[in-house]
């Protein structure tokens, strides 16, 4: 019964993240093929995160207001398909930025909404969130490997065909999806103040920003860095396959390791591994070594994401779950993506990929320090409250 009730949701996660692998893994290479410079690529890649800052809270609020995740997802995926058809016809940087903003306005909230739905379904069924979320990673891994091989064979210019294929599958799957059940009246705009005025939540978002910027920079420039070191499109696909396969394993086994320590401890641990990972990427100039070290992606992103998502879920009122989750997405994939895209493109153009990864290692260490201080002070504050 559990398997049947979650199958459409797992298929949605699989198909959406399979399509998302194209944007993360191969869009920078496609833009490079179009003749754009590193700075121009950075501007286009930053369009998505910029759009998501507005799109994530907007669609999350509508989801809570109308008490549905399913139909908001349907609208967003439909907009994704229409936007993608137009976006991949554009050639100039101005048209790519303008159409890209519209395209990303619909596409960027899908991951957050589907994860929010997965978290709620996991809570209802009393199963691990990771056991559902892992199917997104499986889709990403499978697509990154197969699409990398196909694009290496036929050319990066055909990137839009597999993207539209997986997007269409996601749209079809939505119809069979079980929606959330909400027993409260629809939220009002004033209710969102409960999130904005939540100081521990806002401080947490601010401090993890340093870690998430390094993550999103790697998302944007890993492919270009591998190519800079002499790799190929298929090697980029293999790199993402290894990384996301490990991510899926971490999600799948979350129920076994996740409850043993405080969630913040896992975030600090992931941040430290992030720093070590980026130093290793900067140290080696062989693209094959970068591919091998991609196994660390699961330990970094997988652990960090499960812990952070669980932590903010505890801090957010239940009736504002979609809004809060989408705010997290806006910061993780929005603000971090803008800074990472613009900063990364400029640094690669002026210096090198090696220097970029050293900067990312420094950012991660700053984030670890701030989150550790945050954990110490919030723990002390909690103990002092319980002592009275």
UniProtKB/TrEMBL annotation:
Its main location: membrane. Residues 141-388 form the Major facilitator superfamily (MFS) profile domain. It is a multi-pass membrane protein. It is found in: Cell inner membrane. Pfam families: MFS_1_like. Keywords: Cell inner membrane, Cell membrane, Membrane, Transmembrane, Transmembrane helix, Transport. The chain crosses the membrane at residues 12-31, 43-62, 69-87, 93-113, 134-152, 158-175, 196-214, 234-252, 264-284, 290-312, 324-343, 355-377. PANTHER family: 3-PHENYLPROPIONIC ACID TRANSPORTER-RELATED, BLL5896 PROTEIN. This is MFS transporter. The lineage of its organism: Bacteria, Bacillati, Bacillota, Bacilli, Bacillales.
């Amino acid at each position: 019964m559990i398997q049947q009730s979650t199958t459409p949701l797992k298929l949605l996660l699989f198909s959406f993240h399979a399509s998302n692998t194209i944007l993360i893994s191969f869009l920078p290479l496609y833009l490079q093929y179009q003749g754009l410079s590193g700075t121009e690529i950075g501007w286009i890649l930053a369009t998505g995160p910029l759009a998501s800052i507005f799109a994530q809270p907007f669609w999350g609020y509508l989801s809570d207001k109308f008490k549905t995740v399913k139909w908001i997802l349907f609208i967003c995926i439909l907009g994704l398909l229409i936007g993608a058809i137009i976006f991949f016809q554009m050639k100039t940087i101005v048209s790519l930025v303008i159409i890209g903003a519209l395209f990303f306005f619909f596409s960027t909230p899908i991951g957050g909404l589907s994860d929010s739905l997965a978290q709620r379904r996991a809570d209802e069924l009393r199963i691990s969130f990771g056991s559902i979320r892992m199917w997104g990673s499986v889709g990403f891994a499978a697509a990154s490997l197969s699409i990398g091989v196909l694009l290496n064979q036929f050319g990066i210019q055909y990137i839009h065909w597999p993207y539209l294929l997986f997007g269409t599958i996601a749209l079809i799957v939505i119809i069979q999806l079980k929606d959330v059940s909400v027993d409260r009246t629809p939220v009002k705009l004033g209710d969102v103040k409960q999130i904005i005025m939540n100081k521990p939540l806002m401080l947490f978002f601010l401090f993890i920003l340093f870690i998430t910027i390094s993550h999103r920079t790697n998302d944007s420039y890993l492919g270009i860095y591998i190519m800079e070191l002499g790799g190929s499109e298929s090697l980029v696909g293999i790199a993402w396959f290894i990384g996301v396969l490990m991510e899926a394993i971490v999600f799948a086994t979350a129920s076994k390791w996740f409850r043993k320590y405080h969630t913040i401890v896992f975030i600090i641990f992931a941040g430290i591994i992030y720093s070590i990972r980026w130093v290793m990427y900067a140290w080696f100039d062989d693209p094959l070594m970068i591919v091998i070290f991609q196994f660390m992606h699961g330990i970094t992103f997988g652990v960090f994401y499960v812990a952070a998502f669980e932590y903010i879920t505890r801090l957010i009122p239940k009736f504002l779950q979609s809004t809060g989750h989408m705010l997290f997405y806006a910061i993780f994939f929005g603000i971090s993506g803008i800074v990472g895209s613009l900063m990364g493109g400029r640094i690669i153009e002026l210096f090198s990929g090696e220097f970029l990864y050293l900067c990312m290692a420094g950012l991660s260490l700053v984030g670890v320090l701030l989150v550790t201080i945050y954990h110490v002070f919030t723990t002390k504050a909690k103990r002092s409250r319980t002592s009275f």
